[in-house]
Amino acid sequence: MRVDLFDFDLPADRIALRPATPRDAARMLVVRGDVLADRAVSDLPNELRAGDLLVFNDTRVIPAQLEGTRGEARIGATLHKREGPRRWQAFVRNAKRLKAGDRILFGEGVEAEVADKLDTGAVTLDFLGDEPVEILLERAGRMPLPPYIAQRRPADAQDRADYQTMFATREGAVAAPTAALHFTDRLMAGLAARGIEHTTLTLHVGAGTFLPVKADDTDDHRMHAEWGRIDAATAARINATRAAGNRVIAVGTTSLRLIESAAAEDGQVHPFEGDTAIFITPGYRFRGSDGLMTNFHLPKSTLFMLVSALMGTDRMQAAYAHAIAEGYRFYSYGDGSLLLP
């Protein structure tokens, strides 16, 4: 499928640089079949039905962006996938100045050795010393804001709170599952009062989520793998919800991708633990998910392809055109959408 089918023009002033305050005050475009409705995230309890199950990603973002040196060369690294207790794959700026065995000094006593340079363009780093890597990153790392925000302002102390969801308990992500950034205790209480349930899974989002699709055809694009887990209790709740005739609504594309990775042909979701590189494009038959709450995505991105697979490409192009015309805020800190096929 041609990648340019998923292109659209987005004015730069539509890119949100900070989240709405309070979080559930963000706007929400409801796309129900061919019908569009302008709502707020706080209206979500009125847009769902008793018995619906919201599935959140409980991953926690780590300060995975590092700046260092090797000799005279300045090296920037964004960790994106854990390979072991002290080993991470990273996207590296100035990687051509590195070879296996080189050591990078990141400051604050944090040092890593280049283990390998991969054909994907990534570099494998082994962090030296005895302290847990999480402690090293807290000391020397910065929150890895998406490139479209980082190009316009630096990460700051406020992002340490803003770029985490209220469900974030399991460290390992280098990007937030941003649809869940809109949720508050007040909103969760409103959902519970309407009989809308929730559960969690874990997908450690990698920086590959922001990589552009450089191929002209979707068949030629290679997805980066991310680690995820659905435990037996969560799988059982998803299956019981659908067996009762109720809907499973993924909160975020990360939750949806993991549910679909764990779903069999008959729609049963099984416990899952491991890597997924699922790439969902139009023509895909959804097996474990009935709807999606998500933010607005980049042109020609794998995530815009995913929402087009769920709702139809023409329908999503029309919905995004409406959102742009009505002043919705886009991307990680932007407004949300509720997509119900």
In spatial order, strands of the major sheet run 2-1-17-16-14-3-12-13-15
Main beta sheet strand tally, sense and closure: 9 strands, mixed
Give the overall shape, derived from the CA principal axes.
globular
Q: Count the E strands.
A: 17
Low-confidence stretches: none
- Distance, first to last CA: 21 Å
Computed Rg: 20 Å
The computed structural class is alpha/beta
Tally the helices: what do you get?
9
Strand proportion, as a percent range, falls in: 25-35%
Oligomer state of the chains in this structure: single chain
Give helix and strand order, one letter per element, not per position: EEHEEEEEEEEHHHEHEEHEHEEHHE
| CATH fold naming of the largest domain | QueA-like
CATH H-level superfamily title of the largest domain: QueA-like
- Domain count: the total is 2
Helix content: 10-25%
Q: Could you tell me the mean pLDDT? A: 95
Known CATH architecture of the largest domain: 3-Layer(aba) Sandwich
Features:
341 residues, alpha/beta, QueA-like, Thrombin, subunit H, 2 domains, nine-stranded mixed sheet, 28% strand, QueA_dom2, S-adenosylmethionine:tRNA ribosyltransferase-isomerase, EC 2.4.99.17
Description:
This protein is α/β, with parallel strands linked by helices and 341 residues long. The chain has 2 domains: 3-61 and 161-340, QueA-like, CATH 3.40.1780.10; 65-141, Beta Barrel (Thrombin, subunit H). Helix content is 22%, strand content 28%. The strands form 3 sheets. It has a 9-stranded mixed beta sheet with strand order 2-1-17-16-14-3-12-13-15, with helices on one face. A hairpin with a 2-residue loop joins strand 5 and strand 6 (73-82). The two termini are 21 Å apart. The model has no long low-confidence stretch (mean pLDDT 95). Its EC number is 2.4.99.17. One of its GO terms (molecular function) is S-adenosylmethionine:tRNA ribosyltransferase-isomerase activity. Keywords: Cytoplasm, Glycosyltransferase, Queuosine biosynthesis, S-adenosyl-L-methionine, Transferase. It catalyses: 7-aminomethyl-7-carbaguanosine(34) in tRNA + S-adenosyl-L-methionine = epoxyqueuosine(34) in tRNA + adenine + L-methionine + 2 H(+).
